[in-house]
Write a structure and sequence with these properties.
With 235 residues, the chain is an alpha/beta fold. It has a single domain, classed as 3-Layer(aba) Sandwich (Rossmann fold). The chain is 34% helix and 28% strand. The chain contains 10 helices and 10 strands. The strands form 2 sheets. Strands 6-7-8-3-9-10 form a 6-stranded mixed β-sheet, with helices on both faces. It has a 4-stranded antiparallel β-sheet with strand order 2-1-4-5, covered by helices on one side. A hairpin with a 2-residue loop joins strand 1 and strand 2.
Length: 235
């Protein structure tokens, strides 16, 4: 479904991605792990066509079609959605307004308002609240729900659990796992190793702009040396 091949991306003169490669199959939850500053967000932005960065070498292929230098809205129209780092919500828009940016509230197919509110019941309770009136957990749920309203076949999630309380992280893990079971592909950028292992079937580890290790979640959970060497996580 998604294939990133030998991608090199730059912020100005700064060479950030040094030949990154990975794949995400339909219905697969794949985690992308690494310390801060290793290029994970740059890779997400490069896939989505957001600038900066500038892609100078390599290729992003979606369902057999090269999308490397397409505009972000053209990539989104190919059913790829993004949950950006920091959520990027609009403080003045209500929950319902965020969800209806991409689809009418009267829609009856795919991800609808009713389906969103049954999945994220807290958002249903807060449907008339504005973005700046939501808690961190509610904002995180809304960012994911907004992406789902595009009826994507692939979601790029950039640290969706960042800043969430443990109970909200657990709820989000359940949602992500269920989305994968419905056939949705998910590329999940995470700092939280254990949260990623709870939902992902495969894991890539990035270091200084390239993928240096790949494994199944079960393999990585048993490979203490790899975890300590690349992620700095002990235990």
């Amino acid at each position: 479904m998604l294939e990133v091949k030998d991608l090199h991306s730059f912020y100005g003169a700064a060479h950030v991605l040094h030949g990154a490669s990975l794949q995400v199959a339909p219905g697969e939850v794949v985690a992308l792990l690494g310390r801060n500053g290793m290029g994970k967000t740059t890779l997400i932005r490069s896939i989505m066509g957001l600038t900066p960065p500038t892609v100078k070498q390599g290729e992003v292929v979606w369902k057999g079609e090269a999308i490397t230098r397409m505009k972000p809205h053209d990539i989104a129209n190919k059913k790829i959605a993004i949950v950006p780092q920091g959520r990027r919500l609009f403080s003045s828009l209500t929950v319902t307004e965020h969800l209806t940016m991409f689809k009418s509230a009267r829609a009856t197919e795919g991800w609808t308002i009713d389906r969103i509110f049954s999945t994220f019941t807290r958002l249903g309770e807060r449907r008339h609240h504005r973005g700046n009136q939501l808690s961190g957990g509610e904002r995180g749920m809304l960012a994911v729900a907004r992406a789902l309203m595009q009826d994507p076949e692939l979601i790029l999630m950039d640290e969706p659990s960042e800043g969430l309380a443990p109970v909200m992280v657990q709820h989000l893990e359940g949602v992500i796992a269920e989305l994968g079971r419905t056939g949705l592909g998910i590329l999940l950028v995470e700092q939280n190793l254990y949260s990623a292992l709870a939902v992902a079937s495969r894991v890539y580890i990035m270091e200084t702009g390239k993928v240096v290790h790949s494994a199944t979640s079960e393999e990585l959970a048993k490979d203490e040396g790899a975890v300590q060497r690349w992620l700095g996580v002990h235990g």
